[in-house]
């Protein structure tokens, strides 16, 4: 914005030439800054950009020979004059540029490059392990986004007509960051929604259309910062992703749906298996406490001439698994087995008389 004003007011360049040179200055500065800060984490990059904005604001205030200092710089001319409709025409021009940028963002989000950028945002180490030069990709798109912001800043200069240092102080950077977090930084329309909530509410609605007395107008900036902070705390507490949920490519949505179905099926199988094994476990626990042998259903009988009571299962119970081990026979049944074994060791048992021979005799 200020480079546009300096080039057009101080050097008397045309509107198009001033925009081109302003964008070139922003591209060079962003490339140098990207080489210095893009190896940091997200918090480090945020702090570095805020520090850079503070340096630029201090430069504008101190270098009066170029920027006129705190006095301000103006007047910035419109590219065309259409009488009383000049401002509306220029507003439609900016609105068309915003819509074009938004369409490009949506198409980029669903492209291969967009998926790469999402992967770098979510987990840069994994993306680098797949052979992607994440640092070069981040540097390229950092420069491109800075160029886009510089172009929109240059286009907004004629709307202000007169530039002052308080337009680019670090509080403006904080306000833009808060707007992005409120709308949802992982959604394509999150920045637009956040700007309408923050700048649209105070800078357009209240300051333009709401009648405020001069006594209360002094407190509007402080109230604005208070409301910004209140909204930010509320969103971070109840909707950390922002007011708009993250929009994912169709492939990611389908992958999440399939993964969720597989997870639900796995949990369902575990639940059915646990429900089937639960009755047998309860029965085994009861038999263990009663010190009785666990006999599978349908196989109850006599082992040594003494009948062992058959264990009956309820209708809700299930038969034990086939691989279940037989419980050892203890108590009176074990004593009967030892008695039978001693009798068989003394000799074979006498055969009973033939009924037919007794009848003939």
């Amino acid at each position: 914005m200020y480079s546009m004003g300096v080039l057009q007011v101080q050097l008397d360049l045309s509107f198009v030439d001033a925009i081109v040179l302003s964008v070139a200055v922003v591209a060079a500065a962003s490339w140098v800054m990207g080489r210095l800060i893009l190896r940091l984490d997200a918090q480090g990059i945020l702090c570095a950009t805020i520090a850079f904005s503070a340096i630029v604001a201090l430069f504008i205030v101190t270098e009066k020979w170029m920027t006129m200092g705190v006095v301000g710089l103006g007047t910035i001319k419109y590219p065309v004059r259409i009488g009383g409709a000049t401002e509306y025409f220029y507003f439609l021009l900016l609105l068309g540029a915003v819509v074009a940028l938004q369409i490009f963002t949506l198409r980029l989000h669903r492209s291969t490059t967009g998926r790469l950028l999402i992967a770098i945002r979510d987990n840069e180490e994994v993306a680098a392990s797949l052979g992607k030069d994440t640092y070069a990709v981040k540097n390229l798109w950092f420069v491109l986004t800075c160029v886009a912001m510089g172009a929109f800043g240059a286009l907004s200069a004629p709307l202000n007509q007169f530039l002052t240092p308080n337009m680019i102080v670090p509080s403006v950077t904080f306000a833009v960051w808060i707007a992005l977090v409120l709308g949802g930084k992982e959604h394509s329309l999150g920045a637009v929604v956040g700007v309408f909530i923050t700048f649209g509410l105070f800078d357009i609605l209240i300051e333009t259309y709401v009648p405020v007395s001069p006594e209360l107008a002094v407190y509007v900036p402080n109230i604005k910062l208070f409301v910004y902070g209140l909204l930010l705390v509320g969103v971070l507490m109840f909707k950390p992703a922002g007011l708009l949920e993250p929009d994912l490519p169709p492939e990611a949505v389908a992958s999440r749906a399939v993964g969720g179905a597989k997870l639900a099926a796995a949990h369902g199988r575990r639940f059915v298996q646990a429900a089937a094994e639960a009755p047998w476990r309860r029965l085994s626990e009861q038999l263990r406490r009663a010190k009785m042998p666990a006999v599978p259903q349908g196989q109850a009988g006599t082992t040594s001439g003494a009948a062992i009571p058959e264990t009956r299962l309820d209708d809700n119970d299930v038969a034990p698994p086939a691989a279940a081990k037989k419980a050892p026979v203890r108590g009176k049944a074990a004593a009967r087995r030892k008695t039978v074994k001693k009798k068989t060791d003394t000799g074979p048992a006498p055969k009973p008389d033939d009924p037919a021979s007794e009848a003939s005799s």
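The chain has a mean pLDDT of 75. The first strand starts at residue 73 and ends at 74.
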